Amino acid sequence: VSDLSAQDVFQRRSRGLALQREGNSRGLPSVGVVVLSSFTADLISPLVAEALERAGLYGDIRLGDFGQIEQAILDPDSVLYRARPDIVVLIPAVEDLLAPLFARPSQFTAATAHDLAESQAASLSRAVEILLQRLPAATCYVVAFGPQHLPAEYVLDPRSPQRGQAAVESLLGKLRDLSALSTRVVVVDWEWHTRRTGTAAFHDPRLWFLARMRLNPLGLAALADLIVGHVGAARGRPYKVVVLDLDDTLWGGVVGEVGLHGIELGEEGLGLAFQEFQRELLKLHDAGILLTIASKNNPDDALEVLRDHPSMVLKQEHFAGVRINWQDKATSVRELADELNLGIDSFVFLDDNPVEREWLRRALPDVLVPDLPPDPVDRPAFLRQAPVFQRVTLTEADRTRGETYALQARRAELRSSASSFEEFLASLEQEVTIEPLQPQSLGRAAQMCQRTNQFNLTTRRYTAADLEEMLRTAETEAYVLAVKDRFGEGGITGLGILKLNGDSAEVDSMLLSCRMLGRRIEDVLLHVLAERARERGARYLVGRYLPTAKNTQVASFYPQHGFEAVGDGVFRLDLARQSVDPPPHTAVRMLAGA
Amino acid sequence: VRETTLRENVKRVMAATFRVPASRVPDDASPQNVAGWDSLGHIELMLALEMEFKVPLPTEAIIELVSLEAIEGFLRERAHAATK
Questions:
Q1: Which of A62, A160, A358, B11 has the fewest CB atoms within 10 Å, i.e. is most exposed?
Q2: Is residue B58 classed as helix, strand or coil in its secondary structure?
Q3: Interface ipTM > 0.85
Q4: Residue A206 is nearest to which of B39, B48, B59, comparing CB atoms?
């Protein structure tokens, strides 16, 4: 932001104006935006349009009258409710909310200053709640816009009521608290953001006195960038995976040449910069970004560092996929995408070598390849500030994702080292727990119905309400499964639904998370469904395959398990003569329903 | 020749600021006869002129420069002062 020049801003503004003139000629996803500010911010509109375009969105942007934030929210005929935007940006400046305190600080006590801050925050909070109610699909971005100066800076004691600092800080704190109102409120912390750059370059007193503008075009451009960064993060950034080089990226020097103890990595100097870079990567891992390695190296040399170097922050368990070999890196990245089952457009490639970066950009244009700063000391800050990893908040799934995938990678490793599939199964020590679908697992079961594409025989997209309805009939039985193995315990990863109809029972749905494929977990599920059908007195178990673009891998699932074809995509197993065997070396635990 | 160039350059900046063709900016251009030259448009114009001609504009000048003629006169005087 700080290196944005007036010329850049002018160009952005021109592009933004062109966008507003030409409309959405590129056919980008369109978002409606209304900006309400306590000061003149009209010139921000083309800058927001331009920033949205860089984020892949087309913005239809309108402005409210300045100084009319709450009025515009309360008035049902205001621009807000005429435009019905997807995004509402509120920019209430602290100077405007606390105007009486800024005008005559000496007339306030600590208590009355505090009351003013409190009542202004409460009033804005009520307005935001009304806005959320009246625009049930909109997200509200509230800018925490700090003052340029305190009410009386010549009073030096920060605790002195006449200085006004406590009231300013308390109001800013309460503005930040607005995000607690709803997931549809996102606070844009301009006050904190500008601590790094300072705001001196963003103010122009001429513009304030002549036009009531608290920010000059440079400041408006920086604010537009920050707001749009939050919009991008709130709408779910696609970047999920970081691919890392090793030599001169995770540590200094080439391990193949200088050996385990010759590399630059430690608690001092450049070694510390590499370590700090690893710490930033570990934080990304903890936030649900998957870390992987694509390195040209002798695997033994590189793995020795991961395993044995005392100063390594990142260990093998933090990596969801590893490619250490001499093949070209585009191939490695493609393999990693296959292995993790994630789109290549969710990958970010970090490598100190410009030649490798260029190669990757050409071979895989969908992968994001930023230029890593050449000096290692600049890289920790580069990662901290990289907008591609920003997200508004973290979920439980984000916090455990790295771990889940890393275990998956270790299973794959075990598999490639086992001499037979049977040996692999035996070494996994897996135990499958199957239990009837219950109210507390409805959400997860519905989520799997919505998301599972590959191992899904009928792809029926049931909602939680559908499933709940089904469970009320005695003719339907539904089971969920969870798998535990020597690496750990997963949550629910499979679902089977059985419908009984006279002497036959039909498998209405049968699906398995792609993480569970290749371990014959599906055999356990089919085995249980067949046994349940038998117990309920059915003679035949009927299976159906409904083809989609993504489930061809299960086209011959039923014939492979001894079913005979009795129609187009319909198969039947004679339970009087046949059964489905569970896989070897797999413990099956059947739990009764609650 | 130099005067024409200066006037044309100012007209070009005005045209870009107010999103009109340069041919629609008359020699006696002012807020009265140029669409978009309102109070905010004026601020935009002044910032654009500052950048284009690399002259800082004091607040008083911003208030007074409300015609093409005044702007041209101001810039010519500044250019003259700079060459002295």
A1: A358
A2: coil
A3: yes
A4: B59
CA distances from A90 to A146, A184, A189, A265 (A): 13, 13, 12, 46
pLDDT computed for residue A46 by the predictor: 95
Model pLDDT for residues A114-155, shown as the tens digit of each residue = 999 999 999 999 999 999 999 988 999 999 999 999 999 999
Name residues of chain B where pLDDT drops below 50: 1
Helices and strands in chain B: count of H runs, count of E runs:
4, 0
Residue of B19, B59, B63 with shortest CB distance to A17: B19
Query: In whole angstroms, what is the distance from residue B24 CA to residue B34 CA?
Result: 8
Q: Which amino acid is residue A144, in one-letter code? A: A
Angle, helix A44-54 to helix A6-22, in steps of 10 degrees: 80
Tokens of A140: 């509200």
CB atoms within 10 A of CB A38: 22
CA separation for the pair A280, A282 (Å, rounded): 5
Alpha carbons B15 and B22: distance in angstroms, whole number: 5
Write the CB contacts of A165 (distance below 8 Å, at least 6 apart in sequence). A150, A158, A159
Collapse the DSSP code of A447 into the 3-class scheme (helix H, G, I; strand E, B; otherwise coil) and give the result. helix
CA–CA gap between residue A163 and residue A114 (Å, rounded) = 13
Q: What is the pTM (predicted TM-score) of this model?
A: 0.72
Q: In this structure, how many other beta carbons lie within 10 angstroms of the beta carbon of residue A488?
A: 11
Closest B-chain CA to A18: B19
Calpha distance A341→A334 (Å, rounded):
10
* Residues composing chain A: 594
CB pair distance less than 8 Å for A7 and B51: yes
Nearest to A10 among B19, B51, B59 (CB): B51
| CA dist., res. A462 & res. A459, Å (int) | 9
Question: Within 10 Å of residue B80's Cβ, how many Cβ atoms?
Answer: 9
Tokens of residue A298, six digits = 């002798």
Q: Using 50 as the pLDDT threshold, list the residues of chain A that sit under it.
A: 1, 594
Closest Cα to residue A64, out of A49, A44, A47, A94? A44
* Greatest extent of chain B over all pairs of C-alpha atoms, in Å: 37
Dihedral in degrees, nearest 10, Cα atoms B55, B59, B60, B63: 100
Sequence-separated (6 or more) residues with CB below 8 Å from residue A104:
none
What is the rounded distance in angstroms from the CA atom of residue A416 to the CA atom of residue A421?
9
Distance from the Cα of B23 to chain A's closest Cα (Å) equals 19
Q: Do A211 and B40 touch (CB under 8 A)?
A: yes
- The DSSP bridge partners found for residue A523 are none
